Amino acid sequence: MKVLVTGGNGQVGFELRRQLATLGEVLAPDRATLDLSNADAVDAFLAQYQPDLVVNAAAYTAVDNAENDQAGAMRL
Ligand SMILES: NC(=O)c1ccc[n+]([C@@H]2O[C@H](COP(=O)([O-])OP(=O)(O)OC[C@H]3O[C@@H](n4cnc5c(N)ncnc54)[C@H](OP(=O)(O)O)[C@@H]3O)[C@@H](O)[C@H]2O)c1
């Protein structure tokens, strides 16, 4: 099984990467490789790698910034 873990370098995602490795191959692209606020990039990544399972641990956790970057927060 191929598993895509987003936010894999974050607190939750890092642990999920370890746990989900028991299921098979884990893909955990960093933000530079896959910016989740870019819908076209997400579509292209899914088409290329075709994961069986997607676990989303990415989030806009800089809550103070979200006040000033509402569009970016909503995109993510
Ligand atoms: N930590 C907890 O105890 C806990 C408990 C319950 C629920 N949660 C929930 O779990 C989620 C993750 O929390 P966390 O504590 O793991 O947060 P975190 O450590 O801040 O991790 C967030 C992850 O999201 C990534 N990310 C942010 N914007 C992105 C973008 N545009 N494209 C790709 N990746 C992006 C970050 O990448 P960068 O490293 O590049 O910034 C980081 O890897 C949140 O929804 C949180 O509410 C957390």
SSE layout and pairing:
Blueprint: E1 2-6, H1 11-20, E2 25-27, H2 39-49, E3 53-56, H3 63-68, H4 70-75
Parallel strand pairs: 1-2, 1-3
Bound molecules: NADP nicotinamide-adenine-dinucleotide phosphate.
The site of NADP nicotinamide-adenine-dinucleotide phosphate (NAP) has 17 residues, from helix 1.
Molecular structure report:
The chain has 76 residues and is of the alpha/beta class. The protein has one domain. The chain contains 4 helices and 3 strands; from the N terminus they run E-H-E-H-E-H-H. A 3-stranded parallel β-sheet has the order 2-1-3, covered by helices on one side. The radius of gyration is 13 Å and the shape is flat. The model has no long low-confidence stretch (mean pLDDT 97). The structure holds NADP nicotinamide-adenine-dinucleotide phosphate.
Short synopsis of the structure:
This protein has 76 residues and is of the alpha/beta class. Helices cover 43% and strands 16% of the residues.
Number of helices, where a helix is a run of at least 4 consecutive DSSP H or I residues = 4
List low-pLDDT spans. Answer: none
Q: Could you say which structural class the secondary elements and strand pairing correspond to?
A: alpha/beta
Give the overall form: flat
Indicate how many domains the architecture comprises: 1
Instruction: Work out the strand percent.
Output: 15-25%
Mean pLDDT: 97
The strand line-up of the biggest sheet is 2-1-3
Pattern of helices and strands: EHEHEHH
- Fraction of residues in H or I helices: 40-55%
